[in-house]
Amino acid sequence: MQGENSDQEFDELLLMLKETRGFDFTGYKRPTLMRRVQRRMDARGVGSLSEYCDYLELESDEFTQLFDSLLINVTGFFRDPLAWQALREQVLPELLSAKSARRSLRVWSAGCATGEEAYTLAMVLGETMGLGEFVSRVKIYATDLDDAALAEARTGIYSERQVAEVSEELRQKYFEASGTKYAFRRDLRRQVIFGRNDLTRDAPISRVDLLVARNTLMYFNAETQSNIIRKFHFALSNPGFLFLGKAEMLLNHVDQFEPVDLRKRIFRKIGKPAPAEPPRMVTATGPGDDDPSWTGLEAAALAAGPIAQLVIDRRGRLIAANLRAEALFNLRPRDVGRPFQDLEVSYRPTELRSIIEEVTKGQRSVELTDVIWHSAPGAEPRVFDVNVVPLYSHADQPVGVGISFLDVTRYRQLRDELERSNHDLEQAYEELQSLNEELETTNEELQSTNEELETTNEELQSTNEELETMNEELQSTNDELQMINDVLRLRGEELDTTRAFAASTLRSLGSAVVVVDTDLRVNVWVPGAEDFWGLRSEEAVGRLFGELDIGLPVAEVVPLLERTLAGQPTRTEAVVEAMNRRGRHVTMVLDLLLLQDHDGVRQGVIVVMNEAGAQK
User: Which pLDDT score is estimated for 507?
Assistant: First the structure.
């Protein structure tokens, strides 16, 4: 490929790749690109660039082969071991000592190819920090332009030849053997997040403590390198470290980075970040996608916001999620661009799909309060206020929906604690008032007794014989009291037995038994109900049955309770569809019994719940 015609044809090839496939290679070193394209032309027996362009249009599979050739995915575990040793000994101790033990450590592996470099980082950090601290504190973001390489990296499965540079000790500790393959441990794999990122166009990952881009910059021309390095500087926290490949230098960026170990290509961030593309949330962009028209400042503010926020476009796709939302709902970069209804967050912690449709049609905000979310079985519930608002472009055209999750768990706890404290204070005040009245009465009695004692003192001598007689009477009375005490003890044991029998009876009536009073407030919430609906007894007792936030359709059951309480009839049976605390749809058979005392006075309703097909 020589001459002006060849250069023009090569530019046309790059433009074709950009317009048809969304890959922009204009910032890459031209001689390298030309060599890689020539290699594919020789493999296909094509003599000119124009013929090769025609071949690409006819054979779409050739695009994959060409990208594999242009995106040179050369990597390996512990590539250049001495450099990794320097990172472990010189950088990580300083980096960890500068951060609080409670703060997370964010690492970015840019140009991760098939993932070996990212998993090497995981092993180095795991050995330095300990696996427990690694799992709780570290997030490794590994990005690349090649989707095929990222797919291989996500599997985390490598051949024996690929893991040859990993010591036997680390191999046994961090990998699981699967035939002739080695799979990186699943529990540690969750700390490594893979995503597509074009260093020349996309925004950098922000607030990074360690940025590893080894032998990545060398494929770009000088102008593109400068732009990427400015982004790297912006992405790094302070202190922040940059780890490059042995063929890469920062001779023209001494105002932004200073060498920690120049021979090993380890640098430390200095000064303020140079102007660069500000951080924004990862968005789904591609040929034909609508432009969400974010400004950099708006995106950066939203990404760093303390409130979890999501953005849905008019097609129902997740367009953006800030860092708080990613951590809260376990979102990944690959989730951006997917239909929102396919994501778990669309229905947990609350059903949002119908709300989004309502907001989209009516263009009016909807607020959901006190949304309780059990993020995991046995975990403490969290409470959110959810706001769903329509979003508009600068031309006041609706472009999508924004969803904000305000965590009010602490506020809810404080409110409940305040209510309990006020209740306790009122009880204490009433007790104090009662004690004060008793004290006044006792004072008067003591005064009267004192006067009587003075009179009695004069009569003591004459009443001595009478006291002896009274002593015998008291002894007799004491025997009677002992007999009464024995009877009371037996009655107490009988009462305990009766209570235990009553509780056992309630548990035996069905899978879940609930007793409500005449006001439809919960009086009894047996353990079976706790297990079935995930609501503890102390959370349910005292609350109106119709206000319970459980998987049972209480709105359908309340009329049945009212009818049974009215004695029409005294026993009612019903079948309802529900969802248990594990999110499984169940068919429940309800048996409602009128509760009456021995005089026939209505005391409430007993609700016996059994799952269809599992009735006792």
Answer: 67
Q: Are 114 and 120 in contact (CB under 8 A)?
A: no
- Listed in sequence order, the DSSP H helices in 138-262 are 147-155, 168-174, 186-189, 222-235
Contacts of 470 (CB under 8 A, 6+ apart): none
- Residue ranges in the chain modelled with pLDDT below 50: 273-294, 616
Strand, helix or coil for residue 247: coil
Please tell me the predicted confidence (pLDDT) of residue 287: 39
267 SS3 class: strand
pLDDT for 60 equals: 73
Pairing label, strands 236-244, 208-213: parallel
Give the whole-number percent of the chain exceeding pLDDT 70. Answer: 85
- Give the whole-angstrom CA distance, residue 218 versus residue 239: 25
Q: Tell me, what's the pLDDT at 5? A: 57
Distance between CA atoms of residues 352 and 215, nearest Å: 45
Pull the structure tokens for residue 86. Answer: 């320097």
Q: Give the pLDDT confidence score for residue 125 in this predicted structure.
A: 92
CA atoms within 13 Å, Cβ hemisphere of 74: 11
The burial class, CB within 10 Å (0-12 / 13-18 / 19+), for 99 is: middle
**Closest by Cα among 374, 361, 311, 302 to 340:** 311
Q: Structural domains in the chain?
A: 3-70 (1.10.155.10), 81-269 (3.40.50.150), 296-410 (3.30.450.20), 508-611 (3.30.450.20)
Distances (CA, A) of 310 to 152, 278, 387: 29, 19, 11
CB 595 within 8 A of CB 606: yes
CA distance 208 to 110: 12
Give pLDDT, residue 124.
Answer: 92
* DSSP letters spanning 31-48: HHHHHHHHHHHHHHT--S
Strands (E), 536-584: 571-579
Structure tokens at 258: 């200073």
What is the DSSP track for 338-384? SBGGGSGGGTSSS--HHHHHHHHHH---EEEEEEEE-SSTTSPPEEE
Quickly list H helices, 45-157.
49-58, 61-70, 81-86, 92-97, 116-129, 131-137, 147-155
